[in-house]
Known about the structure:
Largest sheet: 5 strands, parallel
Order of helices and strands: HEHEHEHEHEH
Distance between the termini: 40 Å
Structural class: alpha/beta
Strand content: 5-15%
Amino acid sequence: MKKRMLTATGVIVAGGIAMFIWTGMILDKGSEPQADGTNDYAILLGAKVKENGEPSLSLRYRLEAAREYLEQHPDVKIIVSGGQGAEEPMSEAEFMFSYLVEAGIAEDRIIREAKSTSTYENILYSKKLLPSEVSKVTIISSDFHLARAQYLARELELETDVVQAETPKSVRAKLQIRERAALVKAYILGR
């Protein structure tokens, strides 16, 4: 009995290590291919807006990456995607819209998608706002988040390239562990 328990424990530990390594390799590949302005549309994935109306660090970094990209590629239009959580004073999309307009991005380049509550819904609802002939988009999100976002986009028949925003150091470890679990879930459930 003891030998079986040790064997089972060893298998579980080995499986956990293998899963950790596998998800790490997938997360590392998420930052490719880098966007170059070829795609006419980008999707900026939302993150938390604090109760005081300020962006979380993750959202701030995503917005800065989006602003820089849009300034470099003035023909690209962007869908800002994110609904309103229970503790958020406004939808993430509305906050991102205001932020980008204040940063000098023309309003007619920004499309708001304010219903989504998950990465899957971000991409699904954003796809519905794209012209029917568009099948390639740029995804803008945190570096740890891009692999899953690209996987979900492929599941929704969109080809992607990416713009990566830095992950705040203060939450990097927590978010990478959470993202590994979310990535496994996405591969199992397809969303």
